[in-house]
Amino acid sequence: MRPDGRKNDELRSIQIQTGYIIHPEGSVLITVGQTKVICNASIEDRVPPFMRGQKKGWITAEYSMLPRATPERTMRESARGKIGGRTMEIQRLIGRALRSVVALDQIGERTIWIDCDVIQADGGTRTASITGAFVAMVLAFKKAMDRGQIEKIPVHSYLAATSVGIHPVYGSILDLCYKEDSTTDVDMNIVMNSKGHFVEIQGTGEEATFSDEELAELIRLAKKGIGELIAAEKSVIGDILTEQKVGTGK
Amino acid sequence: MRPDGRKNDELRSIQIQTGYIIHPEGSVLITVGQTKVICNASIEDRVPPFMRGQKKGWITAEYSMLPRATPERTMRESARGKIGGRTMEIQRLIGRALRSVVALDQIGERTIWIDCDVIQADGGTRTASITGAFVAMVLAFKKAMDRGQIEKIPVHSYLAATSVGIHPVYGSILDLCYKEDSTTDVDMNIVMNSKGHFVEIQGTGEEATFSDEELAELIRLAKKGIGELIAAEKSVIGDILTEQKVGTGK
Amino acid sequence: MRPDGRKNDELRSIQIQTGYIIHPEGSVLITVGQTKVICNASIEDRVPPFMRGQKKGWITAEYSMLPRATPERTMRESARGKIGGRTMEIQRLIGRALRSVVALDQIGERTIWIDCDVIQADGGTRTASITGAFVAMVLAFKKAMDRGQIEKIPVHSYLAATSVGIHPVYGSILDLCYKEDSTTDVDMNIVMNSKGHFVEIQGTGEEATFSDEELAELIRLAKKGIGELIAAEKSVIGDILTEQKVGTGK
Amino acid sequence: MRPDGRKNDELRSIQIQTGYIIHPEGSVLITVGQTKVICNASIEDRVPPFMRGQKKGWITAEYSMLPRATPERTMRESARGKIGGRTMEIQRLIGRALRSVVALDQIGERTIWIDCDVIQADGGTRTASITGAFVAMVLAFKKAMDRGQIEKIPVHSYLAATSVGIHPVYGSILDLCYKEDSTTDVDMNIVMNSKGHFVEIQGTGEEATFSDEELAELIRLAKKGIGELIAAEKSVIGDILTEQKVGTGK
Amino acid sequence: MRPDGRKNDELRSIQIQTGYIIHPEGSVLITVGQTKVICNASIEDRVPPFMRGQKKGWITAEYSMLPRATPERTMRESARGKIGGRTMEIQRLIGRALRSVVALDQIGERTIWIDCDVIQADGGTRTASITGAFVAMVLAFKKAMDRGQIEKIPVHSYLAATSVGIHPVYGSILDLCYKEDSTTDVDMNIVMNSKGHFVEIQGTGEEATFSDEELAELIRLAKKGIGELIAAEKSVIGDILTEQKVGTGK
Amino acid sequence: MRPDGRKNDELRSIQIQTGYIIHPEGSVLITVGQTKVICNASIEDRVPPFMRGQKKGWITAEYSMLPRATPERTMRESARGKIGGRTMEIQRLIGRALRSVVALDQIGERTIWIDCDVIQADGGTRTASITGAFVAMVLAFKKAMDRGQIEKIPVHSYLAATSVGIHPVYGSILDLCYKEDSTTDVDMNIVMNSKGHFVEIQGTGEEATFSDEELAELIRLAKKGIGELIAAEKSVIGDILTEQKVGTGK
User: Which PROSITE patterns match (chains A, B, C, D, E, F) (predicted)?
Assistant: First the structure.
């Protein structure tokens, strides 16, 4: 049995608290088991240089952990003077994943900045960040719609992410906590949308490798988890796929 | 009248939530009005090179703001690749203030790391950090006493901090929110201990200057506020000045 | 038809030139179509701090492109003063992939440094780097065996990598050149070993997403390509899985 | 008695040599006892980005010590690749203090750069820098008036700074040399203008704290010292508060 | 006798392979004995800020060594986060040398970027870089002439470089390999043009000094070597001093 | 005639003020015309890692200019966060030159740190730095002899440096001021010792080139100037080549 008594295909408990910080256009505290991430979405009225003049927007993400989000204190990247490889991988992944479900040509030349700050870590911080960031981004789009900046929510699908892995004792498992993650042979992060399509698959077997059958089982677990995560998103932000600016007559 | 209806000598409402993050030896979320700071205290079993071999401990602090702690998003210092002057001033101040009330020779060759992360800012983040960090540090010392690392809480006084200022409309005021702070002529941060002594006075009049009489009035306000802050600390951590390891017979 | 006339499941032509640079323990120039990467493997007689005292070795990789490996000149990362996110992702991937096929406890406390320097780029530089680096690493192990540092080649499987993708015009294709890569909706890098197991799957659909069926087809193409790449490796380095130090009697 | 035989309320000897370096608009070598600082003021015909379009000027300061200004050689900040916290605090303080006595709206969109380079240190380098920088800045304004860039000296008060402290042996003392500073319990830097108003108070009691009475005594000492420093400034730069461009008829 | 059997006034064997990399406007692999340098020349249609508006072009160079160009692996400068002093000296030297033979006012407001990447080092990498870079630059100018960007090759002289030195055993020698260079007392790099004039002389005697007579002998050797290097250049790029755009009628 | 009325083979006026800063083991203010450099020599009782265990000492130099040493303010390298190429070239040159006249095996495992800080620049700062640094170093050795750290001055020759150049109007000239330097075609820095041998020759003709005859004339001028500079050194530090620890009986 898994350390916290879960079944192999069982997610940890999820809370998505909206309006967590008062200043951002969209703000969420997502809690997945003991993992807690503040996800803030900000709207900036310009795009980075490489996007200028294309009449499209951009979405970019930054990710960080507080020094004591982890059992041992980790040094701040600002004190090191540079951002590590793991952080860069994660923030590129979050940005890419969110862009896959947004019609960038419907938001004007604006940048959506996503800030994911892990205040407490117990495994799965990057996937919790994606799920939380999706909700924060949608809240920011609702605010932009209220302000009259956009006509409708420019999102064509829900998006969520989870981890799966092959553990030497428990076998194939869904939503790994840190204790599981650190003893797992194969580790896979999967991002999917509400159409059941893949957005990202990142599977790694540093200590081991995996076969076709194992890949199929991992994907099955991930799909189950992502379905439940998207249900949790809907209970918080409602049906966004048809939402429009009130009274626009469209 | 002040923007939030307070009297000139009135603090904002204060909450000090202990055990906020599960990993650190001491963890606090301090809320002062709309300002919210996570203060974590970590114990490391060694001291920095310049302190080695002196049979004394050290206390050092780091301070940071989430990008959207503020109304406008601010760039991360990790992304800039260096820590700004304001951050350095604040983290040096926090460390110095905490060291003034601790008997460093009673904690062995250990470092207490203080991490103050502002998740929401509305003025007074450095003084809220000092007050919150003091409580987090005491909690860490209690944990160290439980673990048998130290015999008693090595703290000889409570410590708290607040801001005072001279406002062109409201006059001399206590505990400035951001709106007041950004329109104030003279701004002063005061750190005091529970013996009524000063630990730090940092008064600045960039747009104006101040007289002896104004200085005296600002100090009077600060003393009132700090008295109330120390009362709030006591309600959370109790009477620590006599606390000892249970059963040591000392 | 694809720009260079290949069939959808056809690799570009491959050359693996060994002994390319005289100084490294293992050195290879790998050519995949127009992509050319110098892969050097160096043996250092110590491990990084986090590995010390474990009686195991370590493998780490660095990746770089010459400024004019690309059609437009790109600025050097040494001139920028920092290594970009893409580079970090790739060097972490190369290191992880190589470690998956090596018995680190058979090489002593040594580090194998892998340097992949792209001198000419036409798509697929990271997968060419993995394939070339595997050969360079094996050559370094042969040298270490000659020197009596190790008893046998500590590699339990061949390793190779390729890219696959879904192109709006050509459909599912193997081994993308730059022209294809820059116009592809879904892009996937796959690393496999000679047992037919996955080491890494990194699939991304920034402009699009992909279904279960499409994933299955991409994996089929990758397996075909990797089989051919491993055959090319064998023609250069022979049967390494049973190779031992001559005359050790083991 | 104090190490150099001074009375507790006695400044060290002061020289202010003007025109020290030939290139800057204003240049001063200030000597306070054994402390020597080159203070140069430069006029640049533009303001930093955050000040543009406001029809006002800006004053900014940089501070540095030669490696052997101190008894032990200290590493250059250029060699470290970053500016330390102490340096940043000091340069922010110098800039803030100078801006408090200048009518920034009378200098056009210009920046006054103040460079304080300590060539020999014996305590009180930051306060000597402020006093010297004030004179260098006034000299630069005189040059600007000669050039017809401004109509009159845009300074509404003289400015000077000194340190005071509470020493375990000597008690409350004025203008600490290094030997005193390094053994002092409470250390305070005070900046005042010629109207007898405070511009900055920075009091710190790392090893000790201080009472209301002690604060009052320190302020009394500082006022005496600053009065004498301002007299020294006047003997060098004359009565600047009424100085105007000759023959403008205004 | 010298380690590789050469006479004291004998160059190592030289190959200059043109068109080595497909993307740059000019590309050369120069081989001098065991030293191999990829020299690429790129044309950018703008000049650096300090050259703007002068209707002239600019030539700038960058130099780097692969980590295993050397017998021991050297750390990448991108990983260090800064470019070392030796690299800076070399790239400033290469740029200066090339600019001495080019009519910058004949190339418009364009920058010629020279990238010298040493893939294998055995002494003399900076002088091989200059010789190879000259050829790559001329090839780029030929491409620019083909594109109609310039009317004729804006080069008024050939340019080449070599090293000479005084060895404690062999005496005065030409074109030092690494083994010689590392045991030499006096080391001199000389850059000359085809008119027999000096462009740069950089002579250094860290372990020894040298007399007028020794200087004269070193210069004699260098002249002989540079004559042969320029002959090698001519055999590759032909007579460039009269070359013009075909059919321009000028 | 030259701008300051000098003859072509005439040095500017030279002052070498010893004991300029009180803390360093050796300290000099050297003035060459309007160029002023503080040269400090410090003795550290250890060597850098690459020299350990060789029972020899090391000499290293750092060079910097105050921002307003120049007519236009230049940005500090500490503020840029990195040391420029020109600075690196100069500090490497100074260190190399000094090491050429010192018996490193007579100073024990000690490092001599040379700090050359240009407080006012008018051309020739690097050569003035070498001449001044030589005197400061000798003063530090005298101090070390007084302290009993060494038996005699470990210097086997005097050392000085100057610049020469070919000017389009004045012809071949000695000791260029800034006005001359910035309009000169060929610029050469020459370092020589008191035996009349060359230590360094660095000749550059960016805008022009130079012939054998011109080289000979430049060397003749440099020799004359260096002879006078060494005479000035002798008048300040006396005959050091035979100086020994008093009463050692050796």
Answer: RIBONUCLEASE_PH
